[in-house]
Design brief:
The chain is an all-alpha fold and 120 residues long. The chain has one domain. Helix content is 72%, strand content 0%. It has helices at residues 3-20, 28-50, 56-69, 80-93, 101-117. Helix 1 crosses helix 2 (28-50) and helix 2 runs parallel beside helix 4. The chain starts with a helix and ends with a helix.
Length: 120
């Protein structure tokens, strides 16, 4: 396994730990199994975005973003939220279609929100 795939797997493990967290101990095998499912989904999404010029590094960063901002314990071992959220983030980062009207205005709203975090 290449270095970037290892980084992606580690990012998925971080997400799995966050979503599986609870007051009672959880077997590490369960967390690793869930992380592997997330990893497979992230690889699938990478293959889609790679056709549009996206990189595995982009996917790694998106997974870290999901882990930091959206991964919460009630999600447990559900990967649908992960798949849908990752697909949305990657679509924004590497668009595969044009948007018009209010949808385009929403992109400007996101740009403004993102800019407020990226102040150097």
């Amino acid at each position: 396994m290449g270095e970037k795939k290892r980084e992606l797997k580690e990012a998925c493990f971080i997400v799995a730990k966050a979503t599986m967290w609870g007051r009672k101990p959880i077997d590490m095998d369960v967390i690793h199994s869930h992380a592997n499912k997330l990893f497979e989904e992230a690889l699938f999404q990478y293959n889609l975005v790679a056709e549009l010029g996206g990189s595995i590094s982009l996917v790694i960063r998106a997974v870290h973003y999901l882990g930091q901002v959206h991964a919460i314990p009630p999600m447990k071992d559900d990967i649908d939220w992960f798949s849908d959220s990752l697909r949305i983030l990657l679509e924004i980062a590497v668009p595969n279609s044009d948007v018009q009207g209010q949808a385009r205005e929403f992109l400007l709203d996101m740009q403004g929100g993102i800019s407020s975090f990226i102040v150097e």
